[in-house]
Amino acid sequence: EAGVAQSPRYKIIEKRQSVAFWCNPISGHATLYWYQQILGQGPKLLIQFQNNGVVDDSQLPKDRFSAERLKGVDSTLKIQPAKLEDSAVYLCASSVGLAGGPPRETQYFGPGTRLLVL
Amino acid sequence: AQSVTQLDSQVPVFEEAPVELRCNYSSSVSVYLFWYVQYPNQGLQLLLKYLSGSTLVKGINGFEAEFNKSQTSFHLRKPSVHISDTAEYFCAVTPTGFQKLVFGTGTRLLVSP
Fold first, then answer.
1. Number of inter-chain CB pairs under 8 A, A vs B
2. Which domain holds residue A58?
3. Which of B32, B37, B44, B103 to mutate to test the interface with A (most CBs of A within 10 A)?
4. Tally of structural domains, chain B
């Protein structure tokens, strides 16, 4: 079974530029998560999708971050414009997403995209 | 609000020695508890989780954890570590009925020969 795929693996940009990350979850997984992991910290949830609907985006900086999952499969996360403090690893994860399931379900993580903003 | 405290940022240990990684949480409601491991340049992988039932949970790679409700702890243990266990370990909590997983800051386990 293929795991969660993410691209690119590394990205270096200058502040005020825009950047986009792509995630393809495990086939059949209804729930998709985007996390931000700053060096020395644990992952922080940015946004959670159930199919193509948003379940939680309370920690997404909506003035510069956006995410979509149009067909309920793959997803993109965009930052525009980027700031220095956005330097982090962006992790995508997915879970089966049964009704009432996500709090209990195992999340499967991709390898992450390491972003450096100069 | 829920929070997770991992008391040790780094734990050095010799190969074949036992290890305990400490995790305490704060929550006013019942919780589910998880331990994830992150190897260098990789995503996180589930080691084990506590949902209900027996407070002693066994996971992959010989790890186990014990849920202690009175002490609000979920410490991770392994009786004999290997070099390959060198990684970052994250404790995480989610309150039952909620969606969001809250992670601790991680403990780096360094196993040397």
1. 54
2. 1-85
3. B44
4. 1
